[in-house]
Design a protein that fits this description.
428 residues; alpha+beta; Outer membrane efflux proteins (OEP); 4-stranded antiparallel β-sheet; 11 helices; 10% strand
Length: 428
Amino acid sequence: MKFPVIFLMCALSAFAEVKTMTLRQALELALAQSPDVMLSRLDQQKARNQVIIARDPFRPKVFGGSGAAWTSGFPASIDGNAPSIFQARTQMALFDRPQNYQIAQANENLRGAGIEVTKQQDEIAYRVASLFLDAEQAARSLAAAEREGENLTRVQGLVDTRVTEGRELPIELKKANLAVLKNKQQVDTVASDLIAAETSLAMALGLSPDDRVRAAQEDRAALTLPASEEQAIEESLDGNEELKRLESNIQAKTLEIKGYHAMRLPKVNLIAQYELFLKYYYQDYYTNFHNNSVQLGASIDVPLVVGRSAQAYSAQAEADVAKLRIEIDRTRTRITADLRRAFQEVKRADSAREVARLDLDVTRDQLSLDLAQMDEGRVPLAKVEESRAVENEKWVAYYAAQHSSELARISVLRQMGTLKETLTAALK
């Protein structure tokens, strides 16, 4: 009965590496090498470099070279300056208000990139936790289904013997055969789900698609949720990373608008230059000659007519700010609605888990009674094996209910933006 499943899993394992990990190990690996997290960190690095680029005009730059050239007539170089054998010049911005706003905007974009990294970490934590729970639940369900199949196979053999002896009707054997075939189909389905879950988990961790990650069986503390929906909503609206990112975008656009408004302000640049001359060029033209020439001063540019482009750019940025404010309101509404829905799902999942647990307890008590009656000769072995098969069915149902309850809880923490911190604290 289990040969096709075992053959399939062995064939896949010949090409794939199966790694067993705890949830904590999976989270640590995902946060270290997940493609989404790495991409967001690269964007953060780009934003950090953009700050350096924006500050560059306020950093002095020195250029050196030579202006020596053959001349005929009055000594002058090609660019109109006096020819020199060596010259050095520097320039930097002293006062440039629009550039100052660009620096502030770059710093705000850097802060927003950091928020995006945290957001991606929360998303990958949710994805890895969900896939880990899927793989864990599939492994437990497969083990329970296989135990159920063993019980049903024994029941099939016992019923076949009783039918042969004439103590059971032939239809009972057909029922037993049907139960075995149904269990075989269930085992094949759960085994396929397990392979898919373990492969998806490996890909979420940044591993090869040929690899698989098996969920290690472990006891974990229950995830702690806020005491009420209202508390969860309040905490989420105060600390949600998506809202922080939108607010950072608004701040960056506001600085951009201020930069456009500052285009009418004057700009002051530092000018400094040194030149070394040869007397040979100038002895026929000047009575007084100095080899060294130094200039130090400031250039002031006052915009007189700046055109309308700055005003148009400012209007575009103001429209973007208005759109971002609408998006913030919509996001706050969505977060509130999603959290209320998630809390209701937690209640339903917890209730279903309690029902499944009680159903399992009743089935186990019934199995204990059947075992006691079998010892007294009042219940046949086939009845006991059937009860054991039913117990395994109830275990599968309980695992599914427990899985739904855990998923509902991590969904609440994901909406709040505290999933990574809560998982890290619970798995220490």
